[in-house]
Design goal:
Elements: H1 3-10, H2 13-21, H3 27-39, E1 43-47, E2 53-56, H4 58-64, H5 68-71, H6 88-93, E3 98-103, E4 109-120, E5 126-135, H7 137-157, H8 168-184, E6 191-197, H9 200-207, H10 209-224, E7 232-237, E8 240-245, H11 251-265, E9 269-271, E10 274-276, E11 280-286, H12 294-311, E12 316-318, H13 321-340, E13 346-355, E14 361-372, E15 376-378, H14 380-390, H15 393-414, E16 422-426, H16 437-448, E17 455-460, H17 461-466, H18 468-480, E18 484-490, H19 497-500, E19 507-510, H20 512-518, H21 522-537, E20 541-544, H22 550-558, E21 563-564, H23 575-584
Parallel strand pairs: 11-12, 14-16, 16-17, 17-18, 18-19, 19-20, 20-21
Antiparallel strand pairs: 1-2, 1-5, 3-4, 4-5, 6-8, 6-11, 7-8, 9-10, 13-14, 13-21, 14-15
Helix pairs in contact: 2-3, 9-10, 12-13, 13-14, 15-16, 20-21
The chain binds ligand C2E and magnesium ion (MG) (2 copies).
Length: 591
């Protein structure tokens, strides 16, 4: 075999094809082309004008898994990803690089960046097409991964991990969407509800956080069942859920939903075999054209929620404009309250408690006053609930206890005949949630040097109803120490004398609403009489609150009530006024 024949035999199939197709291309030129395209790292495929493959480079063979023989002389359409049978991709790729895909021999898709070059003859006719494809499958995979991560991140940022519900961020975004819609379409109305679970902390503390979490999940699921798919349910954080009623956000429908929630929450939740009951307070704002910003709606719904929480457990409140003013006032008071203790703006006043038959003063009830630097005198009814909400009630109550006991000790020292005077101090329900209440009281008594028997603690009815077991155990400990206990404002709550018997009270204070109505209503008079008799039967002393007239005083004496307190005898007095009275008279002190 001569050298030329040998050379020709060694030529690849593709070269022969090329040489055959373009007779004016020499074999050497064809071999050069082959060598050059084999160096290229991208896939190179040479086509004739019918899209038949004339030549491929080594990268194409490696990329697609076909042998050269399997590719050459076949149509590129066998391996090119297409939406339809046309070959527009190749034509387009001669104008600009486009993303497309080849199919491997194993049918796997490989994404490529495709560009093509048209080869013209001397008389400007297309002779061949060179397709250059860069494998971008790796980049695409990374891009997909990033996109998936971004999508996941986007989702995670807007959802609550525990319940899977939208979180506050998404809730706000949805609220903004509803607001925009309401501004564009005047007939669209939506409602925002914020639910705050009552006593969730108690559930967490008694059953543990895992069970608490479980309860939140179940609540989310239960709430979802009351809503339409256009409505939004979100966990805003802690034990707070938010709802946007987009579907029928009018008042009637809102009240129907509130009713469903209340009825639904009246059924128990199953927590590891325990049946747990929970309720929620609900603040509601119905959308209004005046709302431009989501923050205003949230502020108003929050104000309504605060009102609902003050009312009672499981109640709801719809926002009214006056609440905004109240909320701002409360916020201001809250800020000022924080500084009031250190600025010594509080003062205790003392209202005498007298024996009705003799008018002898047997003790004083300490009643706190706040001398606000700008607003003047503020009564406890205004700031105690705020202090309770913010937790400031604890340091404030400790101050009251200390101050009251020290003061009483000083008065007792003025003369031997005042040794028996009793100081009554009001306790807040929040103090019962503190672990060291009993310890604090013991310390105060020790520091002041006052006799334990001279301290009487007043506890309201609502306080014992809220955490019966806990409060009962603390009261028993206090009783064992020799401290007197008084049930305050009796008759304003769930008054039940038989219930009262379970607690170690020495004294019962009949609420002033009974005393006020006694002279006009025979029913109230009879009720007052029954309370006095039953309390006496249980061995409890009775103090009538709010005696304002001589007639009331006379009536109460006749009914067998031993003690009383009220403006008829004396208003709450300053410490100086009490001291003057003590210094003036011998015991019995007569006002
Ligand atoms: P409370 O313990 O039932 O106190 C009696 C309230 O009735 C006092 O109101 C007193 O000024 C008022 N009062 C007394 N006699 C009459 C009367 O004849 N007519 C009328 N209309 N009212 C009379 P105040 O001082 O405004 O206190 C209101 C409530 O605030 C108290 O009710 C008590 O629950 C709470 N509070 C007052 N001081 C303290 C305190 O130091 N600590 C705590 N935790 N609560 C306190
Ligand atoms: Mg009281
Ligand atoms: Mg009272």
């Amino acid at each position: 075999m001569n050298k030329t024949t040998e050379y020709k035999n060694n030529l690849t199939l593709a070269l022969k094809q090329l040489n055959q197709q373009f007779s004016d291309l020499s074999m050497v030129a064809c071999a050069w082309i082959q060598t050059i395209i084999n160096i290229i790292n991208d896939s190179v495929i040479v086509l004739d004008t019918n899209y038949t493959i004339l030549m491929v480079n080594q990268t194409t063979i490696n990329l697609l898994g076909y042998s050269e023989k399997e590719l050459v002389n076949k149509s590129i359409l066998n391996i090119l990803y297409q939406n339809s049978d046309d070959v527009s991709i190749i034509e387009n790729s001669s104008k600009k690089t486009i993303e497309s895909a080849y199919f491997r021999k194993n049918n796997q898709e490989v994404e490529v960046l495709l560009s093509s070059q048209l080869i013209y003859s001397e008389d400007q006719e297309i002779m061949a097409i060179i397709c250059i494809a860069q494998d971008i499958s790796q980049e695409k995979r990374i891009e997909k991964l990033i996109k998936e991560n971004e999508r996941k991140l986007y989702y995670d940022l807007r959802h609550d991990k525990l319940t899977g519900l939208p979180n506050r961020k998404l809730f706000i975004e949805e609220l903004e969407t509803s607001l925009e819609k309401a501004q564009e379409d005047k007939s669209f109305c939506f409602t925002v509800l914020i639910l705050d679970l009552d006593q969730f902390k108690l559930i967490n503390n008694s059953y543990g956080h895992l069970m608490g979490d479980n309860l939140l999940i179940q609540m989310g699921e239960r709430l979802k069942t009351y809503l339409h798919e256009q409505d939004i349910l979100a966990r805003l954080g802690g034990d707070e859920f938010g709802i946007i009623l987009n579907h029928l956000g009018n008042l009637d429908h809102t009240l129907e939903i509130v009713d469903l929630i209340k009825k639904g929450f009246a059924l128990p939740f199953q927590l590891n075999g325990h049946e747990v009951y929970s309720s929620a307070s609900i603040g509601i704002t119905i959308s209004d054209t005046k709302y431009q910003k989501f923050g205003d709606i949230l502020r108003d719904t929050g104000a309504a929620l605060n009102q609902a929480k003050i009312k009672d457990k499981a109640s709801y409140t719809i926002f009214r404009q006056e609440m905004y003013v109240e909320a701002v006032n409360r916020l201001e008071l809250d800020n000022d309250l924080r500084r009031a203790i250190e600025r010594q703006e509080f003062e205790l006043t003392y209202q005498p408690i007298v024996e009705l038959n003799t008018q002898k003063v047997i003790g004083f009830e300490a009643l706190i006053r706040w001398q606000h630097p700008k607003k003047g005198l503020i009564n406890p009814g205004k700031f105690i609930p705020i202090a309770e909400e913010t937790g400031l009630i604890i340091p404030l109550s400790n101050w009251i206890l200390n101050q009251g006991c020290q003061q009483m000790c000083e008065w007792q020292k003025l003369s031997d005949s005042y040794q028996e005077l009793i100081i009554s101090i009001n306790l807040s329900v929040k103090q019962f949630s503190e672990n060291n209440l009993v310890e604090e009281i013991i310390n105060t008594l020790q520091n002041s040097g006052m006799n334990k028997n001279c301290l009487k603690l007043e506890i309201t009815e609502s306080c014992i109803i809220k955490n019966t077991e806990e409060v009962c155990s603390i009261l028993n400990q206090l009783k064992a120490l020799g401290i007197n206990l008084s049930m305050d404002d009796f008759g304003t709550g769930y008054s039940s004398l038989s219930y009262l018997h379970r607690f170690p009270f020495d004294t019962l204070k009949i609420d002033r609403s009974f005393i006020k109505d006694m002279s006009q209503s025979i029913d109230k008079l009879r009720l007052t009489q029954t309370i006095i008799h039953l309390a006496n039967d249980f061995g409890m002393e009775v103090i009538a609150e709010g005696i304002e007239t001589k007639k009331q005083w006379e009536q109460l004496k006749q009914l067998g009530c031993s003690y009383g307190q009220g403006y008829y005898f004396a208003q709450p007095l300053t410490a100086e006024e009490v001291e003057k009275i003590i210094l003036k008279g011998n015991n019995p002190l007569i006002i």
